[in-house]
Design a protein that fits this description.
This protein is an alpha+beta fold and about 90 residues long. Helices cover about 30% and strands about 35% of the residues. A hairpin with a 7-residue loop joins strand 2 and strand 3.
Length: about 90
C-alpha cells in the first residue's frame, strides 16, 4: 500500500535533468519511489545519516546516493538531492 507521497525539491529537479544523472531518473521513478512510498524508513539500500544530518536518509543506487527527508505529519518523502558516492560525503 502506498502511504507516502513523493515531493522533489528544486535542487534535485535541476540536478536530475543534468546529463550526469538523467539516465537514473527512470530507475528512480520505477524502482526507488515505490519502495519509498511503502516504507521510507527501512530497506537494504536505506540508511539514516548521523550527526547534523540525522533527519536525512540516503538510498543507495549503485554508485549514487539519493538523499531524502521524511515528513511524518504530512506523510511526504522530500527528495533532496542525488550525488555520486565519491562526492556525496564531502
Amino acid at each position: 500500500m502506498d502511504n507516502y507521497k513523493i515531493a522533489e525539491t528544486l535542487t534535485f529537479d535541476k540536478k536530475i535533468k543534468s546529463k550526469k544523472y538523467s539516465n537514473l531518473y527512470d530507475k528512480i521513478v520505477d524502482y526507488v519511489y515505490p519502495l519509498l512510498r511503502s516504507n521510507p524508513f527501512f530497506g537494504p539500500n536505506i540508511k539514516k545519516l548521523k550527526g547534523e544530518f540525522k533527519e536525512i536518509y540516503r538510498f543507495r543506487i549503485g554508485k549514487y546516493r539519493l538523499f531524502y527527508k521524511i515528513s511524518e505529519e504530512t506523510v511526504i518523502v522530500f527528495i533532496l538531492d542525488i550525488e555520486a558516492r565519491k562526492d556525496a560525503y564531502k
